[in-house]
Design goal:
about 375 residues; Growth Hormone, Chain: A; 17 helices; about 0% strand; globular
């Protein structure tokens, strides 16, 4: 997760890449958009690949794509190699790596599973917090393409370490695939779409802040230094939310935990809509970061509760389409509405409306009753 979390560091290299390649900003923006789509694609297919390949082959594939994608641009810099290498190959590999880490955490005993899921998903954002401070110093004076070559080589080294650490880990393919049609309820049930809707809401608000938090604070008149602190506040809150979310989801029912997260989301959005000072706006960004991170650890725990821990990879992997949809819509909608109105009010209201719909759907989810089969709950909710 620490290795694959570098997907959130694109902003550090966008300016240097634009200068090195002489590519206009709007054209260059196609690369992170493609990266988000391909990351989602990797997260959607990881469960099937895990059950089809030996674990060593899966690890090698994920890191070969991630490291090789960086090396492709690093050794032969051009817009085409950047788009193919980073926007496609690396991002698919990052999605596969994300899925691998989550699948390994999901194998933990019941008493440890929620803790390990929380720790695992928090590492995805933690790398952004740590590396955002280190990389500018490490790569000072280097061309962007040379930096990508170094990162690619480092990813291959990390892949070798992961191969060694998982050498004696039982393959997911060897365990066989669980029955996907019986025993744990239908896959595409009303419950699945309610949880996916909640996941979409949390990611819609979070990815809007990823793309626009600095500009949003600047538009309120915040000092440049305070506006620049928005990504750090967002990422630190993400880490806190992902560390706490899984454990809290284990301790309460789905309706309560999802209602609480929706309420925090609404509070953060309202703070951004009504804040009279930059400090309040920064607090709103931090609240959205808490929501963004908690969703990443809460949803796998809830999936394990309703479908069984052996199907977390399959069901949560399919639920990642909500992340991809949010990633495609949130930055674009916010940009269009800002350009049209000159403020982020309409964009924030769109997130608040999504939050209201998601909260209403989540409140109809029934708690698990251990006196009847899990499949009944999936059908009922």
């Amino acid at each position: 997760m620490l290795a694959m979390g570098i997907i959130y560091l694109w902003g550090l290299f966008a300016g240097p890449i634009e200068a090195e390649l002489g590519v206009a900003g709007p054209t260059l923006s196609l690369v992170p958009s493609a990266a988000l789509v391909c990351f989602t694609a990797g997260a959607l297919i990881y469960d099937r690949l895990l059950r089809s390949l030996p674990l060593s082959a899966y690890v090698a594939l994920a890191f070969a794509l991630a490291g090789g994608g960086h090396l492709l641009f690093g050794l032969a810099p051009s817009f085409a190699t950047l788009f193919i290498g980073y926007g496609m190959l690396f991002s698919v590999g990052a999605g596969l790596g994300y899925g691998l880490a989550l699948a390994l955490a999901s194998r933990a005993p019941d008493s440890l599973r929620s803790i390990l899921i929380s720790l695992t998903v928090s590492a995805f954002a933690l790398s952004g917090v740590i590396l955002a401070g280190l990389l500018p110093m490490v790569f000072a004076g280097m061309r962007a393409s040379a930096s990508f070559a170094v990162i690619g080589a480092a990813l291959l080294v990390v892949g070798g370490v992961v191969l060694a650490l998982t050498a004696n880990t039982p393959s997911f393919a060897a365990a066989g695939s669980p029955d996907r049609t019986t025993g744990r309820g239908p896959f595409l049930s009303p419950l699945f779409f309610k949880l996916a809707l909640a996941f979409f809401v949390f990611n819609y608000a979070g990815l809007m802040m990823v793309a626009h938090a600095v500009k949003l604070l600047a538009s309120t008149g915040a000092p440049a230094g305070l506006a620049a602190a928005a990504p750090m506040a967002l990422n630190l809150s993400y880490v806190a939310g992902s560390l706490l979310g899984g454990r809290l989801a284990e301790a309460t029912d789905a309706r309560r935990i999802l209602a609480a997260i929706h309420a925090i989301c609404a509070a953060g959005l309202l703070a951004l809509l009504t804040a009279s000072g930059a400090g309040a706006s920064l607090a709103g960004v931090a609240a959205i970061g808490l929501v963004f991170g908690s969703g990443a650890s809460v949803l796998p725990v809830l999936v394990g509760r309703y479908w069984g821990p052996e199907r977390i990879s399959q069901v949560y992997g399919a639920m990642m389409f909500a992340y991809g949809l949010a990633g495609l819509l949130a930055p674009w909608v916010a940009a269009v509405l800002f350009e049209g109105s000159g403020s982020y009010t309409l964009a924030l209201l769109s997130a608040l409306a999504a939050c209201a719909v998601g909260a209403a759907a989540s409140l109809t989810i029934t708690p698990v009753d251990t006196s009847r089969p899990v499949s009944r709950h999936v059908e009922a909710t």
